[in-house]
Write a structure and sequence with these properties.
523 residues, alpha/beta, six-stranded parallel β-sheet, 21 helices, 14 strands, 13% strand, globular
Length: 523
């Protein structure tokens, strides 16, 4: 079989980093790990071509070559996902789809023409699909009630990538999360009992990437890397030896719950293995909102103290924040901005709450008659898909204004400087790869120095920060310039959000006029 694997395009969102990628000459932040894993599970005597739509379009030769089209992706990718199902069917190609999007909502993919819906986790459902192909079946839906043992998952087919097009590589250690946040679909898709790969399995995947020539950042894509702390410590104790023996070819970052701050041994092990950052879902500084959404793990210790403990252990924090929880009081946007600034969190994802398919939040809102049915892109820059408990206009305004303030250049540069200072004050040793910077990187550095150190009003602050870092933490001075390149994306993104929110508020008002029963709830 000749299988064409297609990974759909994303709309412009917080994590696209389009402007930054243009500067550094990359096409995407991360490769499509799901598509590479699917390729590894399918029969290896098949031929594969992988097209990442963020990188390029599918060519005519590839469409002609394909005997089967395989598409996998998330809800946020739905527009391009469905378009490529339709395009494949226009060309008479059989289409198999999978991933979180059709697993959560299979109807749109089926309506677009998908022949095979290979849902849930592929280790269990791909073999069902292959058996159907052997029987000559031309369509089918394949589901599994149980969760697979991920120690059986083969090494993803990284060889199908052009590694040079990506800023980072991605790898997965575990699936599932032990917590019960009301809005989260991860616990629905992957369960609340974290399943982990073995240390030997992970080191084999890393060795494969190493042998392919990759050097640089690797994102552990786990939704909660520390969900099973015992197993993660077993991995890290072996990983630190593997990294040291190869002179630290990789620098890792991942996602984890805030209770990481209570385990100093775990944080120290992560730094020893050359983890440099962790994304944490803080969601809100308001305890009432955390209670409403069942984010109880964020209530056990003061959030500012937890953030500070992680920083001072040598790990940068990227954090997620959400506005629009039930019972939320006015001014939530400003309280989030104030928290981010006080905590020194350089990169904060700020979004509006959404009720995703099959979540506890969506079930509750359906029962309450507050759900707004329709498209849901989930890219953090669209209005919520339900009637909130305070005016939608107020939430939208606080969100747009809060994002604007959060990425005001002077505020952002202060946070970048403070974060670098905190993670170095305790003397943690990070393993920066040396070498002579490329001409391209020197050009980018010069551009950032010119813009933020000469042209903009940030010039005084920029030079104060930059010269202090050169004096005290010289190996981190380039990191400050990298932060400036990332700000280029956020400045563009906040403009997009402000424009999009205004247009969608108009659509929302028109929607309420057509739905008097929801208009009554909204009032």
């Amino acid at each position: 079989m000749r299988a064409l694997l297609i990974y759909p395009q994303f709309p412009l969102s917080f994590w696209c980093h389009t402007k930054t990628l243009e500067l550094v000459g990359k096409k995407a932040v991360l490769p499509p790990l799901n598509a590479m894993t699917v390729a590894a599970i399918l029969p290896q005597e098949w031929e594969f071509k992988l097209v990442d739509r963020r990188v390029r379009a599918v060519t005519e030769d590839e469409w002609e070559w394909a005997e089967l089209v395989v598409i996998s992706g998330m809800i946020v990718q739905q527009e391009d996902y469905l378009e490529h199902i339709r395009e494949a069917k226009r060309r008479g190609k059989p289409v198999a789809v999978g991933g979180p999007y059709p697993t959560s909502t299979p109807e749109p993919a089926k309506a677009a023409g998908a022949d095979y819906l290979v849902l849930d986790e592929g280790e269990l459902t791909i073999p069902m699909f292959l058996e159907a192909l052997e029987r000559g079946e031309t369509s089918g839906t394949f589901r599994a009630a149980e969760k697979p043992d991920v120690t059986t998952t083969p090494i993803p087919r990284y060889d199908l990538l052009d590694l040079d097009l990506y800023e980072s590589m991605s790898i997965q250690f575990s699936r599932g999360c032990p917590f019960q946040c009301e809005f989260c679909d991860i616990i629905v898709l992957y369960g609340r009992k974290p399943r982990t790969k073995t240390p030997a399995q992970m080191l084999a995947e890393l060795q494969y990437l190493y042998d392919l020539g990759w050097r640089g950042d690797i994102f552990m894509v786990d939704d909660n890397f520390i969900g099973n702390k015992r197993n993660v410590k077993l991995l890290l104790n072996e990983l630190k030896v593997w990294q040291a023996e190869r002179d630290y070819p990789f620098a890792f970052y991942t996602e984890a719950s805030i209770d990481l701050a209570k385990d100093q041994e775990l944080m120290d092990l992560m730094v020893e293995c050359n983890f440099w950052a962790v994304f944490v879902g803080i969601e809100s500084p308001d305890e009432s909102s955390l209670n409403v959404t069942r984010k109880f793990q964020n209530l056990r210790d003061p959030l500012l103290e937890s953030v500070d403990a992680i920083h001072r252990s040598g790990l940068q924090i990227m954090a997620g924040f959400i506005i629009g929880f039930d019972g939320e009081k006015s001014g939530a946007g400003d309280r989030i901005v104030e928290f981010v600034q006080k905590a020194g969190i350089q990169t904060a994802l700020f979004g509006i709450l959404h009720a995703f398919p099959n979540t506890a939040l969506r079930t509750r809102l359906q029962k309450e008659g507050r759900l707004i049915e329709g498209d849901m892109h989930g890219d953090g820059s669209v209005l919520m898909n339900f009637i909130p408990t305070r005016p939608m206009e107020e939430i939208a305004r606080e969100y747009a204004e809060g994002l604007w303030k959060m990425y005001e250049p002077s505020r952002y540069l202060d946070r970048a400087f403070e974060q670098i200072t905190k993670i170095n004050e305790t003397g943690q040793k990070h393993k920066h790869r040396g070498g002579i910077p490329s001409f391209k990187m020197l050009q980018i550095a010069a551009m950032m120095v010119w813009k933020y150190g000469v042209v903009l009003e940030t010039r005084g602050k920029f030079w104060s920060h930059f010269l202090t870092l050169i004096r005290k933490y010289p190996s981190w001075a380039p990191g400050y310039l990298i932060a400036c390149t990332q700000l280029e994306h956020f400045l563009e993104y906040r403009e997009l959000v402000r424009d999009r929110i205004g247009k969608q508020l108009t659509v929302y008002q028109q929607f309420l006029q057509e739905k008097p029963e929801l208009a009554q709830i909204a009032s």
